[in-house]
Amino acid sequence: GRQLMPQQQQHQQQQQQQIHPQLKGEEKTEENESLHSLSPLPSPVTTTRSPPAIIASPTISTYLQYVKSVVRYDYETFRILQLAVPFTFSAMVETIGELVILALIAQYLGTDAMIAYTMTDVVVGVSS
């Protein structure tokens, strides 16, 4: 086989001990392997460690994922938009209509009539 440096040999032994802790430095033999395969416990599994987190605080992507989950277009959002679009359109038409009436009153009846109309509209709107 190939010659390993002492550090590489030590690293390889540590890996083998992590994989087969019951061997504890013993060489792998067919007898040990057959005994291990008869064990009722599951065979040891090596796990890889994830790299350490660079930033522990929440990042912009975390906030964007949250916003995306809130704004996600699903069935409820579709139903709300079905109601919101007609209500928004009717509110815009009503406002434009009131501005046109106000402009006509100001043009043909004067500023005093426009102020009287606006004040009456405000009082009636608040009280009703």
Provide a short characterization of the protein structure.
By secondary structure, this protein is an all-alpha fold. It has 5 helices and no strands. The chain has helices at 6-19, 30-38, 60-71, 75-109, 111-127.
What is the element layout, followed by pairings?
Blueprint: H1 6-19, H2 30-38, H3 60-71, H4 75-109, H5 111-127
Helix pairs in contact: 4-5
Care to describe what's here?
α4 packs antiparallel against α5 (111-127). It contains 5 helices and no strands. It is an all-alpha fold. The chain has helices spanning 6-19, 30-38, 60-71, 75-109, 111-127. The chain is 68% helix and 0% strand. The model has no long low-confidence stretch (mean pLDDT 75). The longest helix has 35 residues, at 75-109.
Task: Offer a few descriptive terms.
128 residues, 5 helices, 68% helix, 0% strand
- Strand segment count: 0
Q: Mean pLDDT across all residues, rounded?
A: 75
Give the low-pLDDT segments. Answer: none
How much of the sequence lies in strands comes to under 5%
